[in-house]
Amino acid sequence: MNEQWCSGTAECFECDYEWIAVWPLGADALECPECGSDDTDRTRRKTVALPTKGGHTCSREPS
Ligand SMILES: [Zn+2]
Question: Is the dihedral of CA 63, 49, 7, 47 positive or negative?
Answer without folding.
Answer: positive
